[in-house]
Amino acid sequence: MRISICFSIIIMLLSGCGSDNEKVKEHTSSEVKNTAQEEVTVTDSRSSAVTKIISSQGNPDALNISLSQFQEADFDCVSQESLPAVHSYLSVTGEVLNESLLRKRLCDVVSLYQLNNMDMLTAKRLQDIGIRRLFDANGKLNEWAFEEVKRAAPERHFDFAQLQKLVDDFHYNQANVWPKQINLSFDDGGALPSLYNHLWLFEKYDAKFTFYASFYSDLDKQKMIELVKQGHEIGHHGTRHVNAELYSTQHGLEKWFEDDVLSQLRNMKADGFNVTSFAYPYGANTLATDRALKNEFSHIRKFAAWENMEYTPERGDSVVIYGFSVDSHVLNFDSVKKAIDNLKGGETLYLASHSIGAQGDVWYITAENLEKILAYAKSKGIKFCTTSECQNFKGLEYKNTAHAASESILSVQGKKEADTLKLEDFTDAGFKCVNEQNLVAMHSYLKATKDLLTAQNLQQRFCQLSDLFKIKDKSKLSIELLSDIGIKGLDGQDQAINRWAFDELLLNSADGKFLFADLQQLVDEFHYNQANVWPKQINISFDDGGALPTLHKHLWLFEKYNVKFTFYASFYHDLNKAMMKDLAQQGHEIGHHGTRHVNAELYSAKHGLEKWLEDDVLSQLRAMKEDGFNVTTFAYPYGAHSLATDSALMKHFKHVRKFAAWENMVYTPERSDSAIIYGFSVDSHVLNFDSVKKAIDNLKGGETLYLASHAIGAQGDVWYITAENLEAILAYATQKGLKFCHTSECMNFKQATTE
Prior knowledge:
By secondary structure, the protein is an alpha/beta fold.
């Protein structure tokens, strides 16, 4: 009994335990399922954040990515403090990196932002974070661009977009703002009389020079004053013209500086001359003499007199530069021209001589050679500058005004805000072709253009627009001209469409001052109409009097497909006029196919144009009109014609149809507004239904496929189309939504669509 009770208790306990285990299993399973779901959700969220960050590269939308999204994507380098720098990088970067590289790049960007020392802002670091255009294609650092960055960058918190803009500003200024300059200088006191005697030559070319004076006490001060009055500059060339390197070594730096620099400088300043530059006698210098001179002068010029030296332009803001000799015994004019041609914005070509003298003198340049240099530099638009002007070429107001004005113009390309620009905006930006008269034309262009041009290309475009605006006669316009000024829609591969678009432009424009926006709108309207408004059409025509009974017999077939056709009548006097009137009453058209169906080319050549016109055209035309038929279209018998017959017919008909009966010809749709067109044969012996289908499929709006036969006949007849083949064409054209038109309707397709 005890065993039975205990056994029962054990069984109950075991049973209870089993039930609890099932609950534990269910709970555990639920936890695993929820955890898995959370992992999927987290994974999806992370993937979405990563995708959004990657796709934001180079996109202003990057500014909308929150810190939490960077955190979800595990971009651990990004913090609240560095978030603006990361936004800045992503919104303007020109690179699209994969996830792995982007993670490293953003850490570099953050690291850059955290720098507190300008010395740590190296060119290599900037290159590594993706700053563009600091190195050339060969990997060589542009030292000048890098110096511009360091000059303008803040002391800390270096921002990618700001640094990239500084590099871009440098290239922009060099290409569009900073002038290309040439500096002419003359050394030694003996130069003064020759310079004074040739002031007329410098005035002729609006050229300024610097005269570096030595032995100042012996010079004619009035002549020097006159030089300054005319905009030239007086510099210092040594009190007694000693060799600075040798003298300072023999007597000490201070004695050289006092004897050959300060003594004369005090006298020159006392006489009112503002002396800011010094030229070394003999070009002899040391680092110590350079340092000493920099305390008194903003510009120091050395001298290169050797024939084998390359004429290389200098940075205009360099303090110590070389003046390359153009004295007669070393002058190589081709080298000077080459150096002028290679000038970039902000660079100065420093050319030095000793006087203007006669042919054969060694330390002189002849007036003839000097004028050659002046004239060539002037022809290339180079700015002449005195030494202090050359160095100060950046004039901050000039740079900032021009750059800001140019940026404001670039920013409104394709925008209606272009209308707010004033003439002074264009003037400040250096756009020389814009004036009060053509300002409206420039506004028109900027609003309507689909191009986004650089400042340099935009300046060229404005000059083209200025020339366009001066054209008064639209016959002077051409596809090439309009394409060159940025009109879109005339430069595709389909030459026929290009020509049609241009014809529409000429048709709808008036002579006068042509505006870009108006011309672009006309081209755009053509393409819109062709794509959306003008119908795709098919014209069926039948030639010869023998066709009439078969057409009348098959009127039910044309009615079935709501088709209108043109019947070109010949031998009119033999035809059933009642049948013809029945055709006309049902909307079909009666055309002219020759009184006696003669070959116009041969007949007119043999009997004369006027006799052919009377015999085979006008005689029947008068009879048809007397019977009430409105005949506006003519089809050549045999398709035979000449330019003379075409010209004669166009005086009496709106539409002239030729005939193409050759099997190897491609079925090409015609412009519906063409006055002279081809009707392609679909007679049974040449019909290729696949070619007809292809031509139907290739139709564009405003085009008409002209198909011609001679009657509706039985299978095997040569100059007939069978009713079965005709219906196959009608059915396929209907399926493709083509509009059937008789000849005069086809040509008037624009009027029909506007109504």
